[in-house]
Amino acid sequence: MAARSPRSARLSRDSIVNAALTFLDREGWDALTINALALQLGTKGPSLYNHVHSLDDLRRTVRMRVVGDIIGMLNTVGQGRTPDDAVMLMAGAYRSYAHHHPGRYSAFTRMPLGGDDPEFTEATRAAAAPVISVLAAYGLDADAAFFAALEFWSAMHGFVLLEMTGVMVGIDTDGVFADMVMRLASGIRSR
């Protein structure tokens, strides 16, 4: 049995996924290939197949990790806050995540979110749970809180995309963003 090189001994599924997350933010979703990632890791593409089954497997795992990170972030910032504070903090955290991790954000929002993968579909729906919980604190029933969460996500995603594509150059985006979030909260409160 041949001895493994120190570099290949450090490879694991986790280290490959972590490297892919970093790669995404630097290079983008479309640039993520097994060979490109292997080059970043200082190895050859076939050695990654000892830890990931395929590029689709890697991409799915990356997307699941991103969804988990977003759920954790939203749960953390919204915990123990008044509904208005929680909405503002969640919105700000979501926007910040998108700007600090553009490649990961692209992986999160890439369609289809679920498709024929029930586990991924469930994970993406779970990402809305922290927001639904906060919005329900405004007195909304389960269905109304779900639809309000869709409105919330639509507004956040649309705003972030406009910022990232340069549409809002020369605009006080922080002020406009804060006003938008407070208008959303006010509209939800008035229901």
Task: Walk me through the structure.
It contains eleven helices and no strands. The chain has helices at residues 6-9, 13-27, 34-41, 45-48, 55-78, 83-100, 102-109, 118-126, 129-136, 142-164, 173-189.
Helix-strand layout with pairing:
Blueprint: H1 6-9, H2 13-27, H3 34-41, H4 45-48, H5 55-78, H6 83-100, H7 102-109, H8 118-126, H9 129-136, H10 142-164, H11 173-189
Features of this protein?
191 residues, mainly alpha, 72% helix, 0% strand, elongated, disordered N terminus
Q: Quick recap of the structure?
A:
72% of the residues lie in helices and 0% in strands. It contains eleven helices and no strands.
From the alpha carbons, calculate the radius of gyration and give it in angstroms: 19 Å
The averaged pLDDT comes out at 87
Q: Got a strand count?
A: 0
Fraction in beta strands: under 5%
Shape by Cα distribution: elongated
Order of SSEs? HHHHHHHHHHH
Characterize the main sheet: none
Q: How far is it from the N-terminal to the C-terminal residue, by CA?
A: 69 Å
